[in-house]
Amino acid sequence: MMSACPACAAAPLAEDIALACPTLQFSLPTIHCAACIGKIERGLNILAGVRSVRVNLSMKRLSIEGAVDPKQIEAALSDLGFEAYPLDLDALNAARDDQGKTLLLRMAVAGFAMMNVMLLSVAVWSGAADATRDLFHLISAMIALPVVAFSGQPFFQNAWSALRVRRLNMDVPISLAIFLAAGMSLFETLNGGAHAYFDAALSLTFFLLIGRYMDHQTRSAARSAAKELTALEVQTAERLTGDSTQTISVQNLSIGDVVLVAAGSRVPVDGELMSEAALMDRSLLTGESAAITAKAGDALQSGEINLGAPLHLRATAVGEDTSLRRMAALIETAENGRNSYTALADRAAQIYAPAVHLLALAAFIGWVAVTGDMRVALNVAIAVLIITCPCALGLAVPAVSTAAISRLFSEGFLVKHATALERLAEVDHIVFDKTGTLTTASVDLSGVLSNLDKAIAKSLAQASQHPLSKALVAVSRDVTAAKVTDIVETTGQGIQGIHGDTPVRLGRGSWLGAEFTGFGLKIGDTPAQQIEVSESLREGVFEALNAVTLGCEIVTGDSEGPAMNVANRLSLPVTFKALPKNKLDRLKTLTQQGHRVLMVGDGLNDTAALVAAHASIAPSTALEASRNAADVVALKSSFAAIPLVLSVARASRSLSKQNFTIAALYNCIAVPIALAGFATPLAAALAMSASSITVLLNSQRIRFV
After folding, report:
1. What's the order of all strands across the beta sheet hosting 413-415?
2. Residue 284 class from Cβ within 10 Å (0-12 exposed, 13-18 middle, 19+ buried)?
3. 189, 563, 613, 700 - which has most CB atoms within 10 Å?
């Protein structure tokens, strides 16, 4: 009902603003159909304080407005039989794809206007003449000019940014072509000309926006994973203080705090399991669908789901140091990377842009000289500008690399550097580290060391991230660590410190001055004691080596016995007792022989080799330094999919070359046609758009490798 009083008409709006309530967002991973939506919306609408409920099936997300406790919503959803996880609204808002929405709006406006102007153009092509034709051209101008000004802004702004610093990019000829097509058509309309190309200006804008939007969506694929990871972080935690629990923000947790994780809840921070056992879902972090059984002392990572009884956890990493945050940061790093093929495409586009302008100018001068008709010459020049648009060239590599990074992430591999795809495609030899990479270690302390020796060994091992140290800590959970000071780790050798006034060492036998070459402990001047170590092959190693056709070898710091044992089982050549410098020297030797080496390692002694190798992969259990040095981080514990990484990288290189070929062939065919005057600006716009979309669609074939 209309109100005559402006104040009364505005009152409902003011009331709505006053009653505005915060929106709650939940992730609903188990919903799958319209019946789920109806059940949830009906079940939540009856709760006190709920103003509106909306379920998005495609995003598996629930939005609730109203003054209602999130715990009450979670309880109600649990009663309805659905899992629900609260999402960080700030993170979601920060991750909102405003650019994509804007491109989509501009594209929709351009498409709608193009269809209407096309209808008017059909009338002109059907025989409308004189005043009728001029009227249709005028109506077309009234539709087209505002739409071009609005929808073409992404190209105009980029072109202006380049021109302001006296540079050319591919948006300069695009913008010039749109301006000339619209300007020429307006001139013809105002002067009663027979030809106007408002439909060409709109078609060019519309199809260019389609290509720009598809490129944006492809680039967003990997970035969206980081958004979802960040949004899935738990916002509150139950901190144990004595016998009581206190609900606090996760941001207020500190290292050492003991946290209660309820059954079905996500782990809020990285930590050490204090309960005797736990059943965990790590699919978010590793892609492994099977539940994992964890024992007391095992490390749990933020984002895992507790599938069993409530557990206690001692926080070891909080804030930006949690696994979830680090993974999101790695994805962002990959997204922001640029590879050399992209740089080549950009350089080609920079050379291409002035060439296009010169070609269009030559076409204009040539046609003026031949025909003496400025209008015909200008039409040909506009068609040349449109048809030579370097969009396909600019999209050739970014579209492929971003699709490949997204594909590998879905398979459990984080590509940290975009150049890694290019380098991985070129490797022809693989060097594996052994301990922690091909094998997982287990230490046997029974009947070897005294209780004091075990306490000292645990204290030293706790300060190291070496796989053997981790294995020692894992088997000595019941041992109270001794007080050892001045602890220093010698890379590739071991770790030493002072217990009381006695120097103590844990590490390689030769470093301890012992006759054995394996793992041992030396206290003061007493003879070093050997610690038995057993190893088992990492899951998927056999499958990976059977599928890889490249030359492979092992370079390890271990002694001859364990190294030869693993090498014989895998039928690989091995270099043992290799120090970090020896590993680096081996890589240099292989490089000098013409090989391009892929290094797969996890330890501190592998870091230099990971950096020096042509490409590198580290497992997610590797040291922080090794993960930072590696090009790709394998999130899964299994190595079975390593051949897939190489296949996707090679396919990425192949598709990039195919895209360059498509762009070159298109120009070889289309440019002579435009120069000969056989292409109208509308036909040129359609041909150029078809080439860009062909390149983007070809890039999506990486998903089927």
Report:
1. 413-415, 632-634, 615-619, 597-600, 429-432, 551-555, 574-575
2. buried
3. 613
Neighbours of 7 (CB within 10 A): 8
Longest Cα–Cα distance in the chain: 110
Size of the chain, expressed as the number of residues it contains: 705
Tell me the H-state helices in 165-313: 171-190, 198-231, 283-286
| Segment 187-232, tens digit of pLDDT | 888 887 777 878 878 877 887 787 777 667 655 654 544 555 555 5
Q: Is 602 a catalytic residue?
A: no
Mapped onto helix, strand or coil, the DSSP state of residue 128 is coil
Could you read off the pLDDT of 558-608 as tens digits, one per residue? 778 878 888 898 889 999 878 777 888 898 899 899 999 999 988 767 777
pLDDT in tens, 20-62: 445 677 777 667 666 777 788 888 888 888 888 888 765 667 8
Q: How many CB atoms are closer than 10 A to CB 41?
A: 15
Catalytic pick among 134, 171, 270, 433: 433
Q: ∠ at Cα 510 (508, 515), nearest 5°?
A: 115
From the list 20, 87, 405, the residue with the least C-alpha distance to 231 is 87
Q: Kindly report the pTM of this predicted structure.
A: 0.59
